Every structure is written in structure tokens, then in C-alpha cells.
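Possible regression after last week's pipeline update?

I re-ran a chain I had predicted before the update to compare outputs. Posting the input and the new output here so someone can diff against the archived version. Not blocking, just want to make sure nothing changed silently.
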Amino acid sequence: MKRDEIEPSAPSQTRVTASLRLLLTAAAALGVNAAAAADEPADEPEAAASGDRDTRTSYRYSEYDEDAQTGTIIGSADRYFVRAHQFRLDQGVGERAQLSLSGTQEIMSGSSPWYVIPGPSDSLIQVLSGATIRDTRRELVATLVSDPIAEDRNTYSASISDEDDYRSVSLGFERAQALRDQLSLGYGFSYADDRIEPSDAIENGRIEHADKSTTSGFASLSWILNRSAVLQAGMQLTYHDGFLSDPYKLVFIESIGNVSADARPGNRLQTAGIVRYRHAFAGADAALHADYRYVRDDWSIESHTFDLAWYQSLGKDWRLVPSIRYYSQTAADFYAPFFDDDSAAHASSDYRLAAFGAWSAKLNLRKRFGAWELSIGAERYRSDEDYALSGDNEAVPGLVGYTRYFAGFDFGF
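New output (post-update):
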């Protein structure tokens, strides 16, 4: 999974309280498109904070289960089910550097929205793929940090992700440096090269293969407001180029009574802004994480994401983390459930490009046992056209609801 976020550039960790220093490493990841839930990470292990052991290993297991498709449908109503395993190793290298290696395996099965056809009385009928779709994704990520607790530090990253029909390779660089007392700058860039090879290209007339690339850069400022609070603000530009259509999606053309391939522009420029606030409450032994993210692109999609989490210590070894997220987006200018004719150069009926909103709530419970820490939790996600801030309220067949369970452990030595 590629990180579509402005990366946190933590300020001087020697000037903040210990509880805030620890919680700064657990910043929430805000995806550009909350509907692409299957591409979101599981409950990822937190990066090792200063003062942790030289070596740390982590494991996470999660089950992601989409709700059955409702409404009038053709095909299987059983949506995606994903099992994921994630391993991570953090290891000190030399006197100051830290190397992190993580591996992920996801096994996916189920049906997916294919296209939409008009029904009687202005109703919409969702056509879904067969329930025999099965895919496995494997990802390996390597990250090297020159000095995790230093004010001035570099981070180098590389990743490779492989599926039955998709391969992605990416490289990244980040720099954090102090500007003056209580203020630090972070900036960086990444590049990803992707190869798409649909598994049934010949049978269904799809493309045999195609390529796309993603180039992204960000810059952020972090302020230490006082011994208990940090504020971060930043901007990110992301440019996608190449084959950006979905080879597994179709659009229905009413004038000819037949379907056509999903067709999107060959490039996409996204501009994002984010504000993060972290506040530690020493008396309550707790911390607040509050994030807001705004994204706009040249496909006319505009989104807002609000994320709120509370990190509460319960006694010496317990920690409870409830969180809530709200997401809303407008529709792409070439989206419609179906099309009257085939005159448009670009056309897509992918529900992820429609106007909708989404709510999700997550609860995570963590318990320390000496050098071990166990984690268990659950998340519930619902999306609906009525949740959108835009107020269009046009029906969007195929929107996702899901439940996710996760558990795992961390061990330091």
C-alpha cells in the first residue's frame, strides 16, 4: 500500500513530555479515498519510540469483511473478505541508525461491483462480478532512519508489492530538520512505478498490460506549543500518470444497450493539506489526536477527512484507544451510474468516484506483559450518499460497509 499522506516530521523529542513523545509515533493515516477500504493498512505496529529496546518485532492479523450488497442486484451479493498478516522488525544499525523491515500478505476473495444498469421507475440495478474472485497481495517495505531521535534526520524507504495482476515498486526520501527553538521542518518525495496485467484480459477483451507512475512531494512544519502539545501543518502534491482506468470496471451505455470499458483521464494531479494536533494530558495519563485533511484534484473530486482519537492509559500496563473518522467527497466530473450515449471521452461508474460520505469507529485495547505488548480491536465502517457534505444525495449503488477485527503483538529485546 502506498501512503497517500503528508508524513509526520516529529519535532525535537527532547523537549516534549514522555507521554506525548510516545504518542507522536502513532499518528493516524488518512487515505485520500476512504472508500478504498481494502487498501487501508491493518492495525499497523507503532514505530519504536526513543528509549525502546534496540530490537523490536511485531505481528498483526486482521479480517476485513464487507457487508453483503443490498438493493436490486445481478450476480453474487457476497462482497470482499480479506485476511491479512503483517510482520515488522525494527533493528538498531550502528550507533544511531534504525532499520525497519515489514512484510504483508493479504488473501482476498468475493465479488465486486462491475457496472450499473437502469431499472424500472428510475431505479438502479447493480451488476456484480462472480464470487470466485481470489487474489493474494504480498508487500515488502524497508525503511532506514539516520537517527530516529535527532532533530536533523533522513529517512530512506523502498517497497515492492505484488499481486496476481498488479506489481508496484516505490522509493522515498524524507528529511526533518530544526529551524529554530520549538519549530521544525519536514519535507520529502516518493516515486512509484506500477504494472497492471489483468488476469482475464484475453477472455473479456480487457487490456493485456499497462503502466502508471505516481510522483509525490510534501512539506510540513511542526510547532511545539508547550510541554504537552504539538501542532503540525503541511501540503502535499501527487501526480499520477499512465493507465488510471480500472480494467475490471465497465459502464452501461443506454443508447446501445451494452457496456463499454471504464475510461478515465491518463493523468491526475492531487493537492492535499493537512493539520494535526497532539495534546498530552498528564493528569489523566492520556492524549488527544485530532487530524483534518483536505484534498482536491483535477478530476473535480474534493474531499474532507476528520479524524479524532483518544489514547487512554488504564493503570500501569493497559491502554485503550477509541477513535472516530468522518469522510466526505464530491463526484468526479466523468462519473455517472450509467450513460445515455458513448460520446463522452471519459466515463466511469465506479462508486469510489461518486459523491458520498462515510463514518467509521474503531476501538483498540493494548496490554503490556514485560517486554511483550498485546493488541486487539475492531472497526466498523459505513458509507452512504446521504452522509456527503455536498448534499447531492443521488443514489450510489455499490457503496461499502465493512467490519474489521485485528489482533497482534509487539516484542522488544
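Follow-up from reviewer: compared with the archived run. Residues 57 and 89 are 5 Å apart (CA to CA). Marking as no regression found.
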